[in-house]
Each structure stands twice: as structure tokens, then as C-alpha cells.
Amino acid sequence: MLNNIGIPGILLIAVVVLVLFGRGKVSSLMGEVGKGITAFKKGVNDGQNEVDEALEEARDVTPEDEKDKA
Asked: Domain containing 69: what range?
């Protein structure tokens, strides 16, 4: 369905959106979308860092350490 749009269709959609919402609303919306993407990327990186730290801690524990705990 969306494979047939092409450049003229995208331009038409952009013009309709600008007419309906105005330039100010669209630019503020895009700013919010940008902030959301930045926050999402930061969250993904933080999650990956936590996983990496957990793996490092798991590697630091040797089988002898596990026997001492038992």
C-alpha cells in the first residue's frame, strides 16, 4: 500500500500537514520527536552498559569463589 507513494505523494502529504497544523506546531512537534529519540538512545545505551557491567561481574566470579560461598 505505501510502496507506491513516491516523492510527489510525500510532498503532498507534507504540504497538507503544514496547512493543517501550521509551521510553528510542526516545528515544535519535530523538536519533541527529536528529544524523544535522544532519550530512547540514551536509555538503550544505559541498558547496554548495565548488561556489560553485569557480565564483567559474572566473569570476575571464579568457580573457587562459588565453592567458598557454599
From this structure: 22-70
